[in-house]
Amino acid sequence: MIQFQQVSKSYPGGFDAIRNLSFEVPDGELVFLAGHSGAGKSTLLKLMAGIEKPSSGAVLLNGQNLARMSRASLPFVRRHIGLIFQDHKILYDRNVFDNVRLPLDIIGFDHAEGRRRVLAALDKVGLAGKEKLNPISLSGGEQQRLCIARAVVHRPSILLADEPTANLDSDYAHDILELFKSFHQVGVTILISAHDESLMADYGRRILRLKHGQFCA
Ligand SMILES: Nc1ncnc2c1ncn2[C@@H]1O[C@H](COP(=O)(O)OP(=O)(O)OP(=O)(O)O)[C@@H](O)[C@H]1O
């Protein structure tokens, strides 16, 4: 369960990106986050992942207040979270396989089991057979799939995706959303942000709409 309790976030300079938000996302739910550019979608996802701290209020993961956690325990919490952010952070000096393997290396995963996981993740996102390629040779959509494989390779229970369909044509965007749906079907809690609400309409899921840092109808 993810809980926001009267959360506000001001960035230096006094700009309020998120204003007094309270909501809950139960385990296993798929939720969309809609809103104009600058509405606060990325900020909300960063607060959820513990990357940003609230200026006031509390963000709780399974009852634990992220802001109160020690620096040492935050990485353990993050292991339950898969992140797909707008700045891909793909490493172009490594091949596709090594990019996806990265989170497992950080955790210190067993080599053989790690290899199996990476190949399974690449297969899941439709990149089987491309593991030895340099990511630069992948299309934009394939690079997005690479990021998704990297986000799910450690089998997180929560997946946070910031505009994963940005810059993709609508057919490809639907393919990506279908991929998220398949993770949702195996019990992963998922939040997906997008400014194009028409993409979300077909999925019949809860849509949180942000406008200038607050929820709107
Ligand atoms: N690190 C930061 N420092 C200062 N201001 C920031 C920072 N990050 C975001 N902001 C500001 O907070 C507001 C919300 O930004 P945020 O990135 O959360 O919105 P968004 O809805 O994700 O927008 P977009 O769809 O364009 O990515 C914006 O006005 C932005 O300029």
Explain this structure to me?
The protein is of the alpha/beta class. It folds into 2 domains: 1-57 and 70-80 and 157-217, Rossmann fold (3-Layer(aba) Sandwich), CATH 3.40.50; 91-155, no CATH class. The chain has helices spanning 41-49, 74-78, 96-107, 111-124, 140-152, 170-185; strands at 2-11, 15-25, 30-35, 56-61, 64-65, 81-84, 158-162, 189-194, 206-211, 214-215. The strands form 2 sheets. The protein has a 6-stranded mixed beta sheet, with helices on both faces. Strands 2-1-4-5 form a 4-stranded antiparallel beta sheet, covered by helices on one side. A hairpin with a 3-residue loop joins strand 1 (2-11) and strand 2. Bound molecules: adenosine-5'-triphosphate (ATP). Adenosine-5'-triphosphate binds next to strand 2 and helix 1.
CATH superfamily of the largest domain: P-loop containing nucleotide triphosphate hydrolases
User: How many helix segments?
Assistant: 6
**What is the H/E string?**
EEEHEEHEHHHEHEEE
Which shape, going by the Cα principal axes?
Answer: globular
What CATH calls the topology of the largest domain is: Rossmann fold
Strand content: 25-35%
GO cellular component, one term: plasma membrane
Function: Part of the ABC transporter FtsEX involved in cellular division. Important for assembly or stability of the septal ring.
Pfam families: ABC_tran
Domain ABC transporter: 2-217
